[in-house]
Amino acid sequence: MRYRVKIEVSLKPGHSDPEGETTAKSLKGLRYPVETVKVSKVYEVFLHAKSLKEVQRHADEMCRRLLANPTKDNYRFNIEEVK
Amino acid sequence: MKKEDINVCIMRVAGTNCDAETKRAFDDLGVKAEVVHSNEIVKKRNLLDYSALIFPGGFSHGDYVRAGAIWAKEALAKIGDDLKEFVEEERPILGICNGFQVLVEIGLLPGFEGIAEYPEAALATNTPIGYHCSWVYVRHENSGKCIFTRKVAKGKVLRIPVAHAEGRFVLPKENENRYLEKLYGNDQLVFRYCAENGEPANGQYPINPNGAFHDIAGICNPAGTVFGLMPHPERSYYGWQLPDWTRRERTLTYGDGRLIFESVVEYLTKKF
Lengths: 83, 272
Hints:
The complex is a heterodimer. Chain A has a single domain, classed as Mth169, Chain: A. Chain A is built from two helices and three strands, in the order βαβαβ. In chain A, strands 2-1-3 form a three-stranded antiparallel β-sheet, with helices on one face. In chain A, 18% of the residues are buried. The model of chain A has no long low-confidence stretch (mean pLDDT 97). In chain B, helix 3 packs across helix 4. Chain B is an alpha/beta fold. Classes of the chains: A alpha+beta, B alpha/beta.
């Protein structure tokens, strides 16, 4: 079966987000009523697996081993079966 | 080990830089150093033929995902066992700039309990944001554990340049104080950003160029044989690399960065 895993890696609360702060400043400069901006990264991973459980295991491992650094990052993902 | 028997591996991948400058520093000290692509090391499985390993600066694999992350995980997956043995035998490993990011992502630094399964620190996006390239001052904080700075007196201020966009050293918020105490307790703290007179930066930009927690610029592992730092010592090896060398009354032959290379060479000749 073919799956799409959409993974979002974002900063843990308490860690400063210079990208978000700079973006917020710019949007405010464009006169939008922006309060704060938080930046996260989204990965769309396509893979083949035998079951949903297997995909979940792979996705979790991918995040822990490479895509997120637990010092500062949170991660979450959703899985969709695709053609 | 005789000086002529030392064989330093300067590993490179796509996007590394200053490997040539690092080699030149060792050449100047009369030590053999080779710039080797990591694929060669993987193919020949010969990491243990070398006496020291350097992860140079740059933007390995485009710094995608996080700076240093891809190279780190690749090294762990392909030569992790050799790397572990290298560390256990207390052969020195130095990570400069991107190399520091790699050592943190591998889990070798701070490496409180050996190679950590997941990173215990991170080098996050600079605050203020952006690529920052300038000469900075760092104060030597180590009491003798770090084998790369044994020729540097404690409290001495060194002038070395930085050049990076992701150099803000951070610890997990939930363990920040505990880990900082460990860094002090194990004598793992090596360099902190400071003013020219040695006064702490206290997070003030541009004295602290990236917003690093506790002004941390470089740390070593508990054994003192693995060392990572954001500044580039190979870019302050010679006196003529200093930005004001032509304005000085007396041109210096060498810059402060040389002390780091001298220290590791001395360690190798005495230890092995």
